[in-house]
Design brief:
alpha+beta; 3-stranded antiparallel sheet
Length: 316
C-alpha cells in the first residue's frame, strides 16, 4: 500500500498495534500528513517522520491534503452565533409549482447560512438549494425542537452487539438477509417487540436511548442525524472528533446540519470532485460521487429541477 493521508482529529493517538488498548507511541495533530504503510481492518499503519504505528481509520482522510481547519464547521464566520439561520429576504413562490415551493421553503429556512456558505465555496445558490432539497430531509428538528434521528440496529450490532450478542438480542433485532429491514426494539427481554422505522421519532429516540444506556459511543455511531441524515460513524468525514461532538453540535444549532451536508461534499481541503461538479452544474456527475452508480441520472435530474426552479423564482 502506498498513499498519503491527513489527520482529521484534533489529537490522534498512534498505537503499537491495531487496538484501542495497545500501548501509546505518540500523538498526531489535526492537519498532519502521514504515509500509509498498511491496513488491518479499521486500523492503518502509518509513518510520520520517525513515528511509526497504528491509527484508527475514522480519523484519517486518505489521499488528500486538507488544511488543518478546512472544514466549514470550523469556519468562525459560518459558525458565529450572530449569523441568522433564515435569510433577510424570504422568497414567496406563489403559483410556481411544488418543486419551486420546496426550493423556496429550503431557502427561507436556511438561506442565512447558505448565502455565506456559497460565497466561501464558490457554489451557486441554486446548486446549493438543489442539493439541499434532494439530499436532505428538508427539516432537521421536530416542531418541538428535538433533533431528528434514525437509529440503525444493524449498525449498533456491528459496533457493539457482536461482542455482547446476548444483551443485544434482548433489545434489538433485524433481518439478517436484508439488515436494514425489519428492525425492532424492546426495553427488556420480556416485553413485546416494537416497530422502529417509519413509525415516528418517539420510536427512534426510544431505541436510541436503550442503546445509549448499553454503550453510548457505539449508540452515537449508529444514528443518522438532522436534515442531511449523516451517520454518526461519518463524524470524522465532516470534521468532528467524535460522533458525540457531531451530535452536540447538531442538537445545539440547525446550521450545523447544513454545514455538515456541505462538509460531506467538500471535505477538509479547498475542493473536491463533488464540489467541482456542483460548480460546473454537472449534477449527474455530482450524484455519481454522492450517491454511487445506479441512480445518478434520477438524482441528478431532481437536483437540476430544484436548482432551476430556485433560479427562476429567485429572479423575481
Amino acid at each position: 500500500m502506498s498513499m498519503t493521508a491527513t489527520v482529521t482529529a484534533a489529537t490522534l493517538n498512534v498505537r503499537a498495534s491495531g487496538s484501542s488498548t495497545a500501548s501509546l507511541l505518540g500523538r498526531l495533530a489535526r492537519g498532519a500528513h502521514v504515509d500509509v504503510l498498511a491496513r488491518e481492518g479499521d486500523w492503518y499503519r502509518v509513518a510520520s517522520g520517525a513515528l511509526v504505528g497504528f491509527v484508527h481509520g475514522d480519523y484519517l482522510r486518505l489521499a488528500s491534503t486538507p488544511t488543518a481547519d478546512g472544514f466549514l464547521c470550523r469556519d468562525d464566520a459560518l459558525c458565529a452565533p450572530t449569523l441568522p439561520l433564515a435569510p433577510a429576504q424570504p422568497i414567496l413562490p406563489v403559483g410556481a409549482g411544488p418543486v419551486a415551493e420546496q426550493a423556496a421553503k429550503a431557502w427561507n429556512r436556511y438561506g442565512g447560512v447558505l448565502a455565506p456558505l456559497c460565497s466561501a465555496t464558490g457554489i451557486s445558490r441554486a446548486s446549493a438549494v438543489g442539493v439541499l432539497c434532494v439530499e436532505s430531509s428538508g427539516q432537521g428538528m421536530t416542531d418541538a425542537g428535538q433533533l431528528i434521528i434514525r437509529f440503525e440496529t444493524h449498525v449498533f450490532f456491528d459496533r457493539w452487539g457482536k461482542s455482547h450478542e446476548s444483551e443485544f438480542r434482548d433489545h434489538f433485532t433485524f433481518d439478517p438477509a436484508k439488515r436494514w429491514t425489519k428492525q425492532r426494539y424492546r426495553a427488556s427481554s420480556t416485553d413485546a417487540w416494537n416497530g422502529l422505522h417509519g413509525v415516528g421519532q418517539a420510536a427512534e429516540w426510544a431505541a436510541f436511548s436503550i442503546a445509549r444506556a448499553l454503550d453510548e459511543p457505539a449508540a452515537m455511531l449508529s444514528i443518522s442525524m438532522g436534515a442531511p441524515q449523516i451517520m454518526g460513524f461519518n463524524h470524522a468525514t465532516i470534521g468532528y472528533d467524535s460522533a458525540r461532538e457531531m451530535f452536540d453540535r447538531f442538537t445545539a444549532d440547525e446550521r450545523y446540519h447544513i454545514l455538515g451536508l456541505f462538509d460531506f461534499v467538500k471535505g477538509g481541503g479547498p475542493t473536491s470532485r463533488m464540489l467541482e461538479a456542483l460548480k460546473r452544474g454537472q449534477y449527474e456527475q455530482f450524484a455519481t460521487f454522492y450517491n454511487g452508480h445506479g441512480q445518478e441520472v434520477a438524482y441528478g435530474a431532481k437536483i437540476r429541477a430544484a436548482a432551476d426552479a430556485f433560479a427562476s423564482i429567485a429572479e423575481h
